[in-house]
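Input (structure):
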């Protein structure tokens, strides 16, 4: 049985406030939080909110940043998730220790990087069932139902025994390094953030018709086995619920 909670906010600012309160609550319990970040427009909004409002109110020394996936391009490329986070968050909050950031090197040879990042996660994270376990995995959900960088035409990869995989975008053919679905579902908290009317149908399909789409969309397979799933949605993304 999935342990799931849906939080709906009037706009992206309120959503960012709600997600920040969620982080702060966990920081009151955990001595450190290892968080897998995602790319996309909604995390960018959250990072901008943190940069503007949370320079001093979050104990950044206890947050350790990883990524759930990365495009195989260098950080200066606008498609790079780490580069986006650096521009919108790290460069604006000097209190974030550089040693707390463990990025996927999109500029490196992809297969070697997937293997290297698997070793980083195994070394830095708590192990549960012999799988690295994040305190928080942040996810987005694509219009096509993908999450991290596992796409609908790659459903078999979700349950891969690998920690990190090399995948390819079905249209652009851009290579990506991604954590597997088993790592996603081994987190203590998985948080899916979605905003905008264009996400409404997919959000409804996954929340209300998960079994129907289980074999069609990777995002429908998000189900933290020993943890909790939280949705942070704005009114538009939640409009069909």
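Output (sequence):
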């Amino acid at each position: 049985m999935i342990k799931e909670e849906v939080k709906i906010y009037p706009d992206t600012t309120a959503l960012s406030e709600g997600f920040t309160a969620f982080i702060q609550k966990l920081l009151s319990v955990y001595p450190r939080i290892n968080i897998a970040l995602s790319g996309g427009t909604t995390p960018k909004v959250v990072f901008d909110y943190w940069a503007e409002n949370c320079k001093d109110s979050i104990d950044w020394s206890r947050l350790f940043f990883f990524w759930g996936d990365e495009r195989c391009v260098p950080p200066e490329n606008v498609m790079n998730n780490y580069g986006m986070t650096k521009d919108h968050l790290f460069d604006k909050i000097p209190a974030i220790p550089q040693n707390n950031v463990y990025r996927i090197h999109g500029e490196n040879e992809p297969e070697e990087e997937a293997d290297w990042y698997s070793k980083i996660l195994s070394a830095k994270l708590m192990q549960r069932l012999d799988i690295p376990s994040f305190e928080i995995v942040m996810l987005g959900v694509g219009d096509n139902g993908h999450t991290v960088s596992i796409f609908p035409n790659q459903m078999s990869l979700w349950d891969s025994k690998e920690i990190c995989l090399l995948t390819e975008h079905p249209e652009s053919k851009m290579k990506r390094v991604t954590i597997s679905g088993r790592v996603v579902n081994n987190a203590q908290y998985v948080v899916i953030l979605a905003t905008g009317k264009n996400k409404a149908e997919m959000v409804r399909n996954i929340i209300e018709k998960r079994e129907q789409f289980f074999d069609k969309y990777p995002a429908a397979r998000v189900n933290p086995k020993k943890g909790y799933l939280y949705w942070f949605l704005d009114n538009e993304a939640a409009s069909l619920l």
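Notes: The chain has a mean pLDDT of 97. Residues 75 and 82 are 6 Å apart (CA to CA).
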